[in-house]
Amino acid sequence: MFNKVLIANRGEIALRVIRACRELGLQTVAVYSEADRDALHVRFADEDVCIGPAPSKDSYLDIKRIIAAAEITNAGAIHPGYGFLAENAEFAEICESCSITFIGPTPDQIRKLGDKINAKEMMKKAGVPTIPGSEGIVSSFEEALELTREMGYPVILKAVSGGGGKGMRICRDDAGLERGFHLASAEAGNAFGNPDLYLEKLIIGPHHVEIQLMCDTHGNCFHFGERDCSIQRRHQKLIEETPSPLMTDELRERMGKAAVEGARMVGYRGAGTIEFLVDSDLNYYFMEMNTRIQVEHPVTEEAFEVDLVQDQLRVAMGERLNYRQEDLVHKWAVIECRINAEDVEKGFRPTPGQITALHKPGGPGVRVDTAAYTKYHIPPNYDSMIAKLIVKARTRKEALVRLDRSLREFIVEGVPTTIPFHKEILKNPDFMAGTYDNNFLDDYPKRKTDTGPGEKKGVTMKRPAENPTADATTEEAKTEKIITDK
Ligand code: MV4
Fold first, then answer.
1. Ligand 1 centre and the CA of 103: distance in Å?
2. 399 and 258 within one domain
3. What digits encode the pLDDT tens for the residues 369-384?
4. Buried b (16+ CB within 10 A) or exposed e, 415-437
5. Residue 441: per-residue pLDDT
6. 283 falls within a domain
7. Known catalytic membership, residue 292
8. Does the C-beta of 445 come closer than 6 Å to ligand 1?
9. Over the stretch 170-214, which tens digit does the pLDDT of each residue have?
10. Average of per-residue pLDDT values in the chain
């Protein structure tokens, strides 16, 4: 049992965890890098320890320094947040061996679910639908070719250790497959130190729909509906919403049950998310499982009126989750916009610097998760996300209106942000109608408009859709890939 939690993270998620701890009467320890001396997580925690210089590898990713900070402050548990060490099985293992509770699943679960082929196999065994493709690694182009002969084009090659779309290639013919195999393998080797690939049938124009799960150590496992995260740019989520515009109650029920079944199979503990692809015929396929609390967890918290971070802490303390699945009702339509310090006009280039003025939106149905404040210096060393704007209303339509008025109230001066970009997305008829798919935005701002070449800004989408990967070597080639097979 523990009564003091070290938060091995920074920014808004560190604040989020500190808030949950405070409300549960738990003491908190912030760790910070030299770049984060003036950060709010340092100010709001009960104790704080500087763990090193600005680069993540010398601070937030340095296991030895974090364990040392936990030992000198006598913290009994570590919450990893998301990113950094959140899905590092070795870190979770070291915590355990030091008698520190890792707030998350077991090292074994992190390891097994982090291996994409293994995760897919386990889910398949649990009866969760998976995408047709190779059984495990494809070790040569010839093997990929043979499999594709049975399956038919288009196919997609994915890195076993993949993430962020690296080492992914769409292939439409034999020549493309040969090229794709070697390129993806080299890219994966470079990026992850593991060149292994697997092969799948390409799902055309899918939505990314993920199911939130929370499981305790007493055999209880609950699902909290879905989040639709299809609005992405180069594998970075920009907007997440619930309910998914393409979802039916019946499908939600089936996917929720499948996700719970999958998590139960592996004896899962804590917060987790199962990502699915859902195609236009409402077929769903397991993609991967995230073994952490995710950036977009507030979407679910607002929709269901729950506190997932408190639940994580409770589960880690060995408590029973006193929910009944039938009591978990979806009460609100919720939309989240990620506000990044980025210059959209310059290819979304990060824009660190000082925030000279900040006004956060408020009023009914508005939540802002941020660690930014007026005069705050955004360090150049970390992620460019500076805030999450989360709005809720009774219907999607009302949530969109609320989002629009909240974005108008949101003032950030000193650095460019993605706020104007979100305002543009709100003008897109397909987004407003909820009929978008995963091609949305992938080549923004290259093809800005459907309304004519004179138009400067309008956000458009490419349809019909299929290019899920920013995979080719040039922008032109990327646009080429969009051409449909539908
Ligand atoms: C896919 C796919 C289509 N077919 N796999 C892989 C990484 C993950 N983050 C997204 N991935 C995809 N895998 C097959 N077999 C399309 C995507 C995809 C995507 C899917 C839904 C919504 C947005 C997307 C953006 C990029 C890629």
1. 29
2. yes
3. 999 999 999 999 999 9
4. bbbbbebbbbbbebebbeeeebb
5. 56
6. yes
7. yes
8. no
9. 999 999 999 999 999 999 999 989 999 999 999 988 999 999 999
10. 91
Task: Give residue 376's domain range.
Answer: 207-433
**What separation in Å is there between the alpha carbon of 158 and the centre of ligand 1?**
10
Confidence of residue 459 (pLDDT cuts 50, 70, 90): low
Q: Which residues pair with 103 in a beta bridge?
A: none
Q: Do 31 and 157 share a domain, yes or no?
A: no
Longest dimension (CA), the chain: 64
* 52 token code pair: 């090193």
Does residue 460 or residue 233 have the better pLDDT? 233
Q: Model-level pTM greater than 0.90?
A: yes
Same-domain status, 243 and 133: no
Find the 261 Cα to ligand 1 centroid distance in Å: 23
User: Which residues neighbour 134 within 8 Å (Cβ) at sequence distance 6 or greater?
Assistant: 143, 144, 147, 198, 199, 200
The count of structural domains within the chain is: 3
Closest CA to 129 of 221, 40, 203, 45: 203
In this structure, what CATH number is given to the domain that contains residue 386?
A: 3.30.470.20
- Which of 120, 169, 200, 203 is the best mutation target for the ligand 1 pocket, counting ligand atoms within 8 Å of the beta carbon and taking the most? 203
- Establish if 482 belongs to a structural domain: no
Instruction: Give the pLDDT confidence score for residue 455 in this predicted structure.
Output: 37
Tell me whether residue 260 is in a domain. Answer: yes
Cβ proximity of 372 and 353 under 8 Å: no
Q: Are residues 195 and 217 in the same domain?
A: no
Residues 6+ apart with CB under 8 A from 190: none
Q: What is the CATH number of the domain that holds 152?
A: 3.30.1490.20
Question: Is residue 186 domain-resident?
Answer: yes
What local confidence, expressed as pLDDT, does residue 439 receive? 66
Query: What is the domain-level CATH number for residue 25?
Result: 3.40.50.20
- On whether both 94 and 188 belong to a single domain, the answer is no
User: What mean pLDDT comes out for the span 347-374?
Assistant: 98
Kindly state if the Cβ of 232 falls inside 6 Å of ligand 1.
yes
Q: Is the pLDDT of residue 29 over 80?
A: yes
**Does residue 145 sit in the same domain as residue 76?**
no
Identify whether the C-beta of residue 178 lies closer than 8 Å to the C-beta of residue 483. Answer: no
Q: Which helix (H) or strand (E) holds 254?
A: helix 249-265
* Mutation test residue for ligand 1: of 116, 277, 278, 466, the one with most atoms within 8 Å of CB: 277
Q: If 0-12 CB within 10 Å is exposed, 13-18 middle and 19+ buried, where does residue 450 land? A: middle
**347 and 242 housed in the same domain:** yes
